[in-house]
Amino acid sequence: MTAPGRQERREVPIGRRVAQLRVRRGMSQQVFADRIGKSKSWVDKVERGVRNLDRLSVIHAISGVLGVAPDLLVGRRTRQATVTEVAAAVERVREALVRYDTPAGCVADMDRQIAYAYTAYRHAQHPQVLRTLPDLLTAARHAPAVDVLVGAYRLTAHLLVKLGEPDLAWLAADRAMTAAHGDPRRTATAVLPLAQALRAQRRGRLALAVSSTALRNLDPVLPSDAPPEHAVLAGTLMVEAALAAASHGDASTAGSLADQATRRAQRCQDSDGFGPTAVDLARALTATILGDHALAVANHLTATRTDGWHRLPAEHRAAHLIDMSRAYLATGDHHAAGRALVTADQIAPAETRIRPAARAALAAVLRAGPTPADLTRLATTIGLTLVST
């Protein structure tokens, strides 16, 4: 039997839920409207229930600004994929990567399909993306646009790194590099997951080399008046190079690259995944990699108190919180580590429930001592059990 309180929460109209979350974030209707690219009148009608909110792309945009998962916004939680189901889906992706004899399928509107898959990824809908990747990879190989093929391989590599498959991610990223044909912009987008895969393989020196080379090739073609998306790409490359330098133990180079990224970030908005807050979060992760956990926590706390934090994609924020749980554990604050994981699960459940890194962090928190009820519930949901030491 459903508890009355839970039933009442489910019956709250989506417009009222938008209003509640907006007020909780301290945003006026006008500020909120500006961030989602709508008018104040449109927002008012949605919140009063006069206008329906039924377009998936708009729901994703609103949930991103409000900092919640789309399922939470619409008042439902979808069942999360199990570890076994994820492993089976990864195997299907592996088969798609090595399949070359498939006949040409439908390749109509591939740009839209890639864009939709990336939107799902940014909202941490990882099981959904996994299900679409095999067909997407097959269709992309027959698409006339090179950007489609690069995008499909790049997305595959990004997700496989998250799922603890760096070798397979490296293969997908290398395919993206090959498809880029030396074009500086396409190569730069392909290098991002390649460097991530190399870092996951503990090859920081190689990750720094490939990202630095891509950055040198890209920057000469980026004039000062280049479109914002070009600045985002160059800045993201700088961040990745800084992380690679840190994983290689080169603190000086990591700091220099982070400083360059900070200067580049002044032209960007964090809603694109790169901006001042994103660079500050990267500094926190760099400090964690280098072993300065107190500095990592300080940078993390400063960055997450800014408006830019809520503009970052759900996947970015949840992934960062999982990374910071390790820093908290290293400082002996397992309660803060647990809170970071619970918050990450509220923002993007798939990040905590199917990623090996999140499960490992949660297991470490459970071993550290008594845990609050919400953390215990999360552990039970994921399938972890308390282990006495």
Question: Main attributes?
Answer:
389 residues; mainly alpha; 434 Repressor (Amino-terminal Domain); 23 helices; 73% helix; disordered N terminus
Provide a count of the helices.
23
Structural class: mainly alpha
Percent helix: over 70%
Number of strands: 0
Amino- and carboxy-terminal Cα gap: 37 Å
Report the C-alpha radius of gyration, rounded.
Answer: 21 Å
**Residue windows where pLDDT falls under 50 for at least 5 positions:** 1-10
Relative strand content: under 5%
Tell me, briefly, the overall form.
globular
Question: What is the overall pLDDT average?
Answer: 86
Largest sheet: none
Order of helices and strands: HHHHHHHHHHHHHHHHHHHHHHH
Structure description:
- This protein is mainly alpha-helical and 389 residues long.
- Among the domains are: 4-73, lambda repressor-like DNA-binding domains (434 Repressor (Amino-terminal Domain), Orthogonal Bundle); 313-389, no CATH class.
- The chain has 23 helices and no strands.
- The relative contact order is 0.07.
